[in-house]
Design a protein that fits this description.
There is one protein chain. This protein has 514 residues and is an alpha+beta fold. Among the domains are: 65 residues, no CATH class; 64 residues, no CATH class. 42% of the residues lie in helices and 15% in strands. The chain has a 5-stranded antiparallel beta sheet with strand order 4-5-6-7-8. A 3-stranded antiparallel beta sheet has the order 3-2-9. Helix 6 crosses helix 12, helix 13 packs antiparallel against helix 14 and helix 14 runs antiparallel to helix 15.
Length: 514
């Protein structure tokens, strides 16, 4: 029997908050990625030993345990890399899973919001070390704009959190680092950044402030000639230790950062957790799963009801359940002879009731509308299932959308600020503090043009019409014009709003004097 080493218990540690949320994190990522990953994802097994997937299995869709391939242990099911339609021919559940397209509600909402934000310029200004890092974030030539918009921002918003890791680049193989000149020659004094998915940061201990890691354990999957292997990197305030899955020490190193060079940035924190974020797209992911299941019900219903049932005389049915067909596919009718007359029994087509299917279709429209409201997306008039929107309704939707985009922009700005401070810490080898911090600036846009040309023209015309009749009730009309101005021009700075308020007050006062 193999003796457990000193680090065996370390690699088996799992934080209670990780145990509670790791499946949820993986499910949120699957919802964002969609496609085959969403269709094939497994989140455990049910009481009968079958996989729990995003598509919920009905009670009647469980295999018969008396069948040779049925039961708990022997039922086949497809997995990653297998054709999902392999068992769709005689299994209603697999038919639904193979034929139902995966909705992309989460990805649509995230891409819509981020495309609006990053369509505007993000202003960054800082010392030379930050400017250099912004030009090459990960040591592979990736700029800060590409790194944030394509990798960090989507993961941060979908998961509600993301861990960022900062370190010096590793020395090339065969190079000996003996002096600072060697470090400068090889460019080893700069900083490279990477991200860690929350499902891979399996255990941690926070310091007294509750904001920094005192130590943490990161799961890493490395490729080998025979496949993949799990390894664990234990970070402390002094260095790191690389361990295999059994706790055997593979490598170690030290750093002078005086803290763990990993920081978790949040969109928002869960109220009852110390180190877990709250995803703003979790509700959309829930509706995406429900839409996926209801869509599968409609597909199965339409498939099974595409060919009508035929109801005919019982005398035609043979003992083996078949109906005899004559030459040229002629189906005979039953002849009844009573006295001197002969009658024939007819065949009737059984019509399926469609009320349940229509209810599912209406529910799908409601779910789609809920997603649009949850993500502050405006549905244009004329779209099927979308109610007509008045000018005021559009104005409120645009104002709400601008406010949400501004909140997301502030979240991304906070994340970039934390990243910039970690870069200064790494480059200075732990000498950086907030007291000696060189000033830098990261400004995300707060104003977003969500109106169409016709909306802007109509809003301006309505505002001018109200302003032209002002003067009878100067106080009330002044407050009304200020409120309308904020609805028409959401996201302005406080200074610009103050200037507009002063202009409105002066105008209404002049109108009242006339």
């Amino acid at each position: 029997m193999r003796t457990k080493n000193a680090h065996y218990e370390l690699v088996r540690r799992r934080h209670p908050e990780w145990r509670e949320h790791h499946l949820r994190w993986r499910w949120l990522l699957d919802s964002y990625e969609g496609g085959e990953r969403y269709r094939e994802a497994v989140y455990g097994v049910d009481r009968r030993g079958l996989p729990i997937r995003n598509l919920v299995r009905h009670k009647r869709e469980y295999p018969d345990p008396r069948e040779p391939m049925g039961g708990v242990a022997g039922h086949p099911f497809s997995g990653p890399g297998m054709e999902p339609a392999a068992y769709a021919t005689d299994d209603d559940y697999e038919l639904r899973r193979a034929r139902t397209p995966v909705p992309t509600f989460v990805a649509e909402a995230v891409e819509t919001h981020l495309s609006r934000i990053y369509a505007r310029e993000v202003r960054r200004k800082g010392p030379a070390v930050l400017e250099s890092w912004w030009a090459d974030v990960d040591g592979c030539g990736t700029t800060i704009d590409a790194w944030m918009s394509e990798t960090i921002a989507p993961l941060l918003l979908v998961l509600g959190q993301i861990d960022l890791c900062f370190d010096h680049p590793p020395a090339p193989e065969g190079e000996t680092i003996a002096t600072r000149a060697d470090v400068a020659r090889l460019g080893l004094g700069r900083c490279v950044a990477s991200h860690i998915l929350p499902e891979n940061l399996v255990w941690w201990r926070l310091d007294q402030t509750g904001r920094r890691y005192a130590e943490c354990l990161v799961r890493e999957v490395v490729e080998t000639p025979t496949g993949t292997e799990e390894r664990y990197r234990h970070w402390t305030e002094e260095g790191w230790t690389l361990l295999d899955a059994e706790g055997e020490r593979l490598a170690s190193g030290s750093h002078g950062f005086r803290r763990v060079p990993i920081v978790r940035v949040f969109d928002a924190r869960k109220p009852r957790c110390r180190n877990v974020g709250q995803s703003r797209y979790e509700g959309i992911a829930e509706r995406q799963r429900e839409y996926y299941n209801r869509d599968s019900e409609l597909i199965l219903s339409d498939t099974t009801q595409a060919h009508p049932l035929l109801q005919g005389p019982e005398d035609f049915i043979q003992p083996d359940g078949t109906i005899p067909i004559g030459p040229s596919w002629l189906l005979p009718k039953k002849k009844n002879v009573q006295g001197g007359t002969a009658t024939y029994e007819g065949f009737d087509v059984v019509a399926f009731p469609k009320e349940g299917a229509e209810s599912l279709r209406r529910n799908k429209q409601d779910l789609r509308g809920d997603v649009d409201r949850d993500s502050a997306l405006v549905r244009p008039s004329g779209v099927e299932g979308a109610p007509y929107q008045s000018g005021l309704a559009k104005m409120i939707d645009h104002a709400d959308g601008n406010n949400r985009l501004s909140k997301i922009a502030r979240t991304l700005a906070r994340a970039e600020t934390e990243a910039a401070r970690m870069v200064l810490l790494v480059v200075s080898d732990g000498e950086w503090t907030r007291d000696n911090e060189e000033p830098f600036e990261i400004v995300y846009p707060s104003e977003f043009d969500l109106y169409t040309v016709s909306d802007v023209a109509q809003a301006a015309s309505d505002f001018q019409a109200v302003a032209a009749r002002a003067g009878e009730l100067p106080i009330t009309e002044g407050l009304l014009l200020m409120r309308l101005m904020r609805l028409c021009l959401p996201g302005l700075s406080d200074a610009n709003y103050a200037r507009c308020d002063a202009e409105i007050e002066s105008y209404v006062a002049r109108r009242a004097g006339l």
